[in-house]
Amino acid sequence: MVKLNNSDFEKIEDIIKGLGINYDSDRQKTLDILSSAWIETIGNKISKFSKVYEFNSDNVIKIACSDSIVANELYKEEERILKELNNKLMKTGIEIKGIKFDYRKWKEKNYEEET
To answer: Which of 28, 34, 84, 113 lies at 20 to 30 Å from 59 by C-alpha?
Structure first.
């Protein structure tokens, strides 16, 4: 394990790995970048009702929506949102090839507690 500044402190990643939890810091950084780009693209009002929860190996971003109405409205704007997201992400090396909207994930991920 890596110690910081000659102290007894350990990196959080090392502690998590020691617990047997599958933590991928690169994956989390990608999700953080995508979440920021998502909020910037769709705005603060709608971002309260939609959250990035996955980015898979097919370069598809998955969005949890608070209900089917939000999912449907976002789906109608999918092409425009995808284009804007890719423009914002151009410098990061991340390219999104598709968006999936899922209103069932909202409760599963407990996002309603955040709003």
So the answer is: 113
